[in-house]
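User: Show me a protein chain along with its predicted structure.
Assistant: Here is one chain, sequence first, then structure tokens.
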Amino acid sequence: MTPYSLAFYMDVVTTGTVLGLRPEDSPERVAEVLGADFGDNAYAYGLCRDHGLVEFHWTRASAEGPWEGHHFALQVHRLTHRRREFLEPVLRERYGRFTPRLRFDKLRRLLGRRGVPLVEIPEDPANAPYYRTFWQPESGVGISVIGLHGEYRTPGDLRVGDVYAIRAPLTADEVAVRRERANRERAHR
């Protein structure tokens, strides 16, 4: 048995879902599963629903149009604040205690034992070398990890090797764009 929050993170990375919720699920469906305690950051063409650790994002083509799921993110870095409101009750009930930090090497090792590989992909130049991104190709999940501590660049309460956030989907097309950009940058050096 994998202890506490590690089982949750492994489920998310392996399936590309949060408690079975997919990135394309509706705001109503997300509230049905995660609960009605959330904050909305809404504007005409976008909605970010913040449940604490978990955020879901939607977009729409017009101010009156239906919401279309865009992605979800686990804001793992928030847990370092050790405030209960940053963890959804449904997650606490199902998975128990969550540690304030998630060490990437431990997550990667446990996923590897289950045959779930993580591939490092080029980081956005604006974030490198302070962050590194790892991708699970089958589930389309991206994991952002602290790569180098930098004042005003990375949270002071995270260490090198801590997971900052987990996001889905990170598509093969997005990964290809990052790789092409990195190849162009190397060619111009």
